[in-house]
Amino acid sequence: MSVRPKPKRSFWTWGLQADEPTDAQRAAHAAELSVRFDTEIVAPPIPKAEDLKLRKPRLRIPDSLASFCFTDNYERALHSYSADDRAPAVFGQFPSPPDMVAHPRDESELERTLEWCDSNGYVVIPFGGGSSVVGGVTPPEAEAVVTLDMDEFDSVLEIDEISRAARIQAGVFGPHLEDQLRPHGYTLRHYPQSFTGSTLGGWIATRSGGHYATNHTHIDEFVESVRMLTPSGWWESRRLPSSGAGPDPNRLAIGSEGILGVITEAWMRIQRRPVYRATAGVAFPSWEQSYEAARNIVQSKLWPANLRLLDPDLSRDAAGMDGSRALLIIGFESAELPQDWNIKAAVGMARASGGEVPDDEIVIDDGTGRPTGHSGAVGAWRNAFISIDEGLTAGLGLVTGTFETAVTWDAWPALDDHVRDIVGRALNDVCGGGSLNCRFTHVYPDGPAPYYTYAGAYRSGDYAAQQTAIKKAASDAIIEAGGTITHHHAVGRLHRSWYDRERPDLFAQALRAAKKSLDPNSILNPGVLIDP
To answer: How many alpha carbons fall within 13 Å on the CB side of residue 293?
Structure first.
């Protein structure tokens, strides 16, 4: 049970209340956008929890759960949306909030809550940080909904220094997890972009993609065993480095998105904190040359920790370049070995593909703590990547979003052309034009994981319909071109129809059978991955 005071999260935008922009900052940003789009944009006032008019709860909290369950405006508003659905929140609109939010403090309280919900047929949504961008924790239409916020499960319980693993509770947020490992000299080294606002359990449940652009990219590679409470009882896999004993039970829990059980803790592989680092930003005169360089490097199996590729438009917007060149960011790190040979080998391959980088911009830390990746184009990109100022743009007349996929190298150029064509048309139809850029977040020997960001001006009318039209065009284009509907954003409710087209029908039948066994009354996150 946690006794650490927790900073309050914002109920209307991303992040913490302490980081919310002020009304004055939002008004200033609205004025900037008014000039850019040649139309008046007015920032709506920041909503206050006490002023919200929420639907009355459709259940009564029993006395046995009252000490850790809540029905106040703040709690219900905070848990009303996934990050992707939050656009109406800035206007104070919360039409379908959960009826109750539980913050169980130990496994006994979790068991009692889940049993009470199961016996009454209440829908249960396991909740980590709420950073899902695919509707993964948005309450569905139901007679009564209970959100299980796991934020009290936030401790590193045990560290095995011999095997380099740690037993960690699922509700711990990324920064607090690292704060607990750091004094022992360890790190999980899993940094999704949502790192500050997401949890270990959420990473496991959604197959999160993290810091490493090659080799260990997904949370899958870090999980040794998982402990999960289901309506039918406890599910816990044996802790092993590897096993050939049938299908891996961990793999059913990883990516289950809350439909099979509530993850409470996991044994995770950890590593020594890096000491040696090396970084370089290589510019390319063409997009095609840059992704060929990325392919050559990853197929050589040098396994750089960072191999991020930014197309010319994104290089201009996020790295301060001139818009004519693509940027490949290469980074290596190790706790044990100097990285000078690795970075020079990778840069040599990039140069052989037409890349340019002066020798004095290849930055190598020999273990003395020399900063790497904090200056120039690489530093500008780093600052843009870790800064999420969603509160500034919420409700300010922009239709923006992201989508990502993975595809084999042979199919990649055609997919990129098709996506840019189809989404460009959708932006013209919906917004009268807009921007679309691409970066590689992860790169594999057999294919890249491209990540696209779009933006257009909102036209008066139905915002949700305009957003949906662009997202549907992008998702259709990805599936038509042979990509996956998601590389690391999960399925949730937003991607469900395309996931149905991607996965084998017999697999869906097997997953339904597993859910029937673990969740006979289908109370856990219905509508995600499979039908209730």
So the answer is: 31
Q: Which range is least confidently modeled, 64-78, 221-235, 457-471, 493-507?
A: 457-471
Q: How far is CA 28 from CA 4, 19, 31, 35, in A?
A: 36, 17, 5, 11
The sheet that has 262-269: what strands, in order across it? 156-160, 165-169, 262-269, 223-230, 233-236
Place of tokens 């990746």: 373
List phi, psi (to 5°) of 240: -145, 150
Question: If residue 154 lies in a helix (H) or strand (E), which one and from where to where?
Answer: none
C-alpha torsion sign, points 47, 49, 52, 57: positive
SS3 for 186-233, per residue? EECCCCCCCHHHCEHHHHHHHCCECCCCCCCCEHHHHEEEEEEEECCE
The one-character DSSP state at 413 is H
Residue 237: name the closest of 261, 258, 257, 215 by CA.
261
* Residue among 477, 485, 473 at smallest CA distance from 207: 485
Please identify which residue in the block is written with the tokens 């990050």.
83
- Judged on CB neighbours under 10 Å (0-12, 13-18, 19+), 429 is middle
Place of tokens 């900037």: 32
Q: Which two tokens stand for residue 209?
A: 């993609």
Beta-strand pair 123-127/145-149: parallel
Which positions ≥6 away from 26 have C-beta within 8 Å? 43, 46, 391, 392, 396
What are the tens digits of pLDDT across the range 280-335? 999 999 999 999 999 999 999 999 999 999 999 999 988 899 999 999 999 999 99
Helix segments in 16-138, DSSP class H: 23-37, 73-78, 107-120
pTM: 0.94
Q: How far is the C-alpha of 187 from the C-alpha of 198, rounded, in Å?
A: 16
Q: 22-36, 349-363, 372-386, 455-469 — which one is most confidently predicted on average?
A: 349-363
Contact (Cβ atoms closer than 8 angstroms) between residue 278 and residue 343? yes
What type of residue is 130? G
